[in-house]
């Protein structure tokens, strides 16, 4: 397991402490969860971009056409 040191200014430390108390999580857990959420956001963006690239080649039909 890797150990990472993070330097925070006073305002950032206050925010992290507030979040830690609010969510009843230790600071390490909060940072880890944030890391995963940001990674998930990137994966979502990649998925959306891939869909948009292929969506332009798709033909859409109306509901009426589907029922005919």
* Secondary-structure element series: HHH
Task: Find the count of extended strands (DSSP E, 2+ residues).
Answer: 0
**Distance N terminus to C terminus?**
60 Å
Low-confidence stretches: none
Radius of gyration: 22 Å
Shape type: elongated
Q: What is the number of helices? A: 3
Helix-strand category: mainly alpha
User: Proportion of β residues?
Assistant: under 5%
Characterize the biggest β-sheet.
none
Question: Which percent range fits the helix content?
Answer: over 70%
Mean pLDDT: 92
Describe this structure in words.
By secondary structure, this protein is an all-alpha fold. The protein has helices at residues 10-23, 27-55, 63-67. It has a domain at 28-68. The longest helix is centred in the middle third of the chain and has 29 residues, at 27-55. The model has no long low-confidence stretch (mean pLDDT 92).
Compose a concise summary of this entry.
The chain has 68 residues and is mainly alpha-helical. 71% of the residues lie in helices and 0% in strands.
């Amino acid at each position: 397991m890797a150990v990472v040191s993070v330097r925070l200014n006073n305002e950032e430390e206050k925010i992290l402490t507030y979040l830690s108390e609010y969510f009843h999580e230790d600071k390490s857990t909060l940072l880890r969860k944030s890391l995963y959420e940001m990674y998930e956001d990137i994966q979502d963006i990649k998925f959306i971009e891939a869909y948009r690239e292929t969506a332009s080649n798709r033909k859409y039909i109306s509901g009426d056409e589907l029922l005919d």
